[in-house]
Amino acid sequence: MHMADALLSPIVGGAMCAVSAGALAYSAAKIKKDELCEKKLPIMAISGAFVFAAQMINFTIPGTGSSGHIGGGILLAAMLGGFPALLTISAVLIIQCLFFADGGLLALCCNIFNMGVIPCLFIYPLIFKPLTKKGFNAKNISLAAVIGVVVALQLGAFGVVLETLASGITQLPFGAFLLAMQPIHLAIGVVEGIVTAAVLCFVYKMRPEILNSTRSRTAISSGVNMRKIIVSLAVITVLVGGGLSLFASAYPDGLEWSMEKVAGTTELEASGEVHETAEKAQEATAFMPDYDFKDANGSGTSVAGIV
How much is the pTM? Predict the structure, then answer.
């Protein structure tokens, strides 16, 4: 659901930068007040790397010709807490944008809001935490993960449609675009919710102290278990990014699929000085556009995942 610059006007892109920057600044300020902030940084880094690698694995949505990948916002929030999760997923999105040209530079802050602010600062505290408050167990974790992810993705997809509508630079009709985006992201959300639930239940069973629960502070302060957790996640991340990414679906993701259904193409063009400047800047920083080498030989996806 990474938006491209062609969907956005500079005004909307700038406005969303102000909103997302404010959310990031607030989150950073909240984290600084946490006495265990420095000890959380390694787990934030390796969790972000895991989500980056997992996002490269697009899964096919049967019968649609579309695919999806995990957003990771709810997963990170359940492991780290809402504020650290927002900073972590934002770092992932920034790296994807600058180094891999995944999502437009002008659209970066929209992507941070849709895939970061919504799940981490709204859905996690309003849905996930209340559903696990009465009992932090596998059943409640699974229920909270599926519902949380589905709602977050529906709101994120709706955000894409509204931001596109407000920009007014495309020929995508609001109604048709909305009717394409919401159902396909409902299906993607169900799959992502199940995957998120499976990952969280696995972590709960093997290393419950890693989750953002009352046990996490003790584990972090002790330091011993956290080192084992970091090593375990690092190994899984390398395996996912370097191996499983080779089997990712080749179908367009939900946003591209919706654009093709409505406009007949996944590639929209936008003119203007701001768009041209953003495109040139991104071309200069992206050393592996679309997760492949510029002389594409097919091995780029695995290399990108490991990196």
Answer: 0.89
